[in-house]
Design goal:
CATH class: Alpha Beta
Helix content: 40-55%
Strand content: 25-35%
Number of helices: 3
Number of strands: 5
Number of domains: 1
Strand order of the largest sheet: 1-5-4-3-2
Largest sheet: 5 strands, mixed
Shape: globular
CATH topology: YaeB-like fold
Length: about 120
């Protein structure tokens, strides 16, 4: 039984950046990243080597792709039983920028979510 359920972050325009990133990976790499996300869903809370907290509300799922040559990271936040997939990135360079983008997307998600609740 899943402890948390992964969902893709959506932009205001309805795009799902992590889903798009996954679809641009090779089939083999997409399977690896998806399995690692599922390990987090079913095993939450889970630590290294799969997950690591990188900021106050941002975690990453680490996946080894490209035949063991590249480490991919899927950044996410957990709210209740929701695992919100915020950003996906290959490689180690630019991690600070990737985390900032994930934080920005989380803030955007929360702002839209609170606006929708007040509009009801």
């Amino acid at each position: 039984m899943k402890r948390i359920v992964a969902r893709f972050y959506r932009t205001e325009a309805g795009n799902e950046p992590v889903k798009d990133w996954l679809l641009n990976l090779s089939k083999d790499d997409r399977i690896i990243v998806s399995k690692d996300i599922a390990k987090a869903e079913f095993g939450w809370p889970i630590g290294m080597p799969i997950c690591e907290k990188v900021e106050k509300e941002i975690w990453e799922v680490r996946s080894t792709i490209k035949k063991g040559k590249v480490e991919a990271r899927t950044y996410f936040s957990v709210e209740g039983s929701l695992m919100l997939l915020l950003h996906g990135k290959e490689g180690k360079s630019g991690q600070d920028d990737a985390i900032k983008l994930a934080k920005s997307r989380l803030a955007s998600h929360r702002q839209r979510d609170s606006k929708e609740k007040t509009d009801e």
